[in-house]
Design goal:
The protein has 11 helices and 14 strands. Helix 10 runs antiparallel to helix 11. Strand 8 and strand 9 form a beta hairpin.
Length: 341
């Protein structure tokens, strides 16, 4: 299976995916790496060629020590995570978890979830930023999180990203626009390549919690603006068309589900742009795709993540010019631009 959930943990409940081990309280990093099934190391295996003498070429295989056959574990198999260039530096799982230690010691964050996908090719750690939350409308709370994700197959760098989550239904929301923090942020995230100065670069972003708190306050203002913008089912269709880039959203195979999310989804009443935005995020996080494991990967790393950012941006574009132009005209123009790009 391409989107395989291999192992993981969640605190208190199995989040929106029903996956992994459920823990009663936030773990330490040493406990978390065991509970997540990530207490293994990535081994580097040079690739050789044989001519007149054996020579190493400029590439190497990455394998897990737990997947290496031995006399002790004769049933283990040799599973190659990926093939990378000679100067690629892996970020070991224990180092990824240890990055959170200073933040935990300061009382700034608590580990909330972690896991492995695709037989160890992708790993992730989710940490909740404590004592920071906000109600968008009464009873509808949003909390900020940090998500560290890393690949062990050479497909991506190390990413640390800001991820607000709507508590009532545990949907992942997009953050505020990236340009607020200049070149440091790229789509609400910091990207660190797998190079020799990997650890030094990680150490430079230990002040990320304070930065994320500021980012979160901007996000809350935008979400509250969405909650103050009235929207009916007709305008929801136009908004959905603009987000999905299609001229006839009612013809979409999941239209009935999307409309149901808008009118009666978790925490929604079918009255505001906030309801419309969360109808899209609920669909992306809970309903789109074929499995919980597929949705989890796509929610944070794939196509669903891109659509969620688009839903956020279309909503902000609407709000920015709603005082100058009729809401329907704004949405109509947004949909026209989406279909021609």
């Amino acid at each position: 299976m391409a989107h395989q959930f291999e192992s993981g943990f969640f605190v208190a409940k199995a989040a929106w995916h029903g996956l992994g081990t459920v823990l009663n309280k936030p773990p330490t990093t040493s406990e978390a790496i065991v509970q997540a099934g990530l207490n293994w190391r990535v081994m580097e295996e040079p690739i050789y060629r044989t001519d007149e003498q054996e020579q190493a070429v400029l590439r190497k295989n990455l394998i897990r020590d737990c997947d290496t056959a031995s006399a002790v574990k004769p049933s283990a198999y040799r599973h190659i995570l990926g093939t990378v260039k000679y100067d690629y530096v892996p970020l070991q799982n224990q180092d990824a978890f240890r990055w959170f230690d200073p933040l935990i010691e300061k009382g700034g964050v608590e580990l909330e979830a972690a896991g492995s996908l695709q037989e160890g090719k992708r790993v992730w750690v989710l940490a909740k930023i404590v004592s920071t939350e906000a109600a968008i409308v009464p009873g509808d709370w949003v909390r900020p999180y940090l998500l560290l994700h890393n690949s062990h197959d050479g497909s991506s760098a190390v990413w640390i990203q800001f991820t607000p989550i709507r508590v009532v239904c545990w949907n992942t929301l997009s953050g505020a626009v990236a340009h607020r923090f200049g070149d440091l942020w790229n789509k609400q995230a910091i990207c660190i390549p797998h190079t020799l100065d990997l650890q030094a670069q990680l150490a430079k972003v230990q002040d990320l919690v304070d930065l994320t708190k500021r980012q979160f306050h901007f996000s809350v203002e935008e979400y509250q603006a969405m909650a103050n913008q009235e929207l009916n089912s007709e305008l929801f269709a136009t908004y959905t068309g603009a987000v999905l880039g299609i001229p006839s959203p009612r013809m979409h195979s999941d239209w009935n589900q999307l409309l149901a999310n808008f009118e009666n989804g978790i925490g929604n009443q079918g009255k505001t742009l906030w309801d419309a935005y969360n109808a899209i995020t609920q669909w992306l996080d809970r309903q789109r795709g074929t499995s919980d494991a597929q949705r989890l990967e796509s929610t944070w790393f794939g196509a669903n993540a891109q659509l969620r950012v688009k839903a956020h941006q279309v909503a902000l574009d609407l709000i920015r010019i709603a005082n100058k132009t009729h809401v329907y005209d704004v949405l109509k123009e947004s949909r026209r631009e989406a279909t021609c790009c």
